[in-house]
Design the sequence.
């Protein structure tokens, strides 16, 4: 309800500290689990009940404690479909891991390894919940789009390096990863509209 009267110039959603930025906003029911993921391959899962309600123009509470000065949060998801957690790195590696491998913790901790980041594997750039019927769409920094079925991506443990999802040319990186809900894709294509994607 605090967003029900938007102004022409917009309204504040959160108070931003120096050297910080807002990266994502999602609607939830208030009793779901949240997963945050970082550039260095860590993640944390916690209940929304651990996050107290505050006004719009406040700084909020700590979700995850970053492991180093060069680390940063790259994404969040609200657990909805009890699917697998799909992660993607900028060097074209990724994997699926069963949701049950992400235990619920108290917010503000250091989290757990969601993918082992190395020079070869790269850094984490995307995390999403996915099921077999979804597709994964990758976009490189050269403007190339790669689409593949989620069901073809191996399901393995958290503390692993993952598998190669895309073979990239030297100097090319994955800049964006999103899932496509195939059922809705088919329905919308009949109307000549673009497929629905969710990051």
Sequence:
């Amino acid at each position: 309800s605090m967003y029900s009267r938007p102004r022409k110039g917009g309204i504040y959603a959160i108070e931003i500290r120096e050297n910080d930025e807002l990266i994502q906003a999602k609607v939830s029911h208030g009793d779901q689990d949240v997963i945050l993921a970082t550039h260095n391959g860590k993640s944390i899962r916690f209940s929304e009940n651990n996050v107290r309600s505050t006004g719009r123009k406040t700084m909020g509470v700590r979700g995850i404690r970053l492991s180093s000065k060069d680390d940063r949060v790259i994404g969040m998801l609200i657990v909805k479909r009890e699917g697998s957690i799909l992660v993607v790195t900028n060097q074209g590696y990724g994997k699926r891991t069963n949701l049950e491998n992400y235990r619920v913790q108290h917010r503000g901790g250091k989290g757990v390894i969601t993918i082992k980041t190395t020079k070869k594997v790269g850094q984490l750039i995307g995390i999403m919940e996915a099921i077999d019927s979804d597709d994964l769409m990758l976009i490189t920094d050269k403007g190339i789009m790669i689409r593949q079925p989620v069901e073809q991506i191996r399901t393995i443990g958290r503390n692993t390096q993952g598998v190669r999802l895309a073979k990239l040319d030297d100097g090319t990186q994955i800049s964006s990863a999103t899932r496509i809900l195939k059922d809705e894709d088919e329905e919308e294509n009949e109307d000549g509209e673009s497929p629905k994607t969710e990051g």
In short: The two ends are 25 Å apart (CA to CA). Helices lie at 182-190. The chain is about 5% helix and 30% strand.
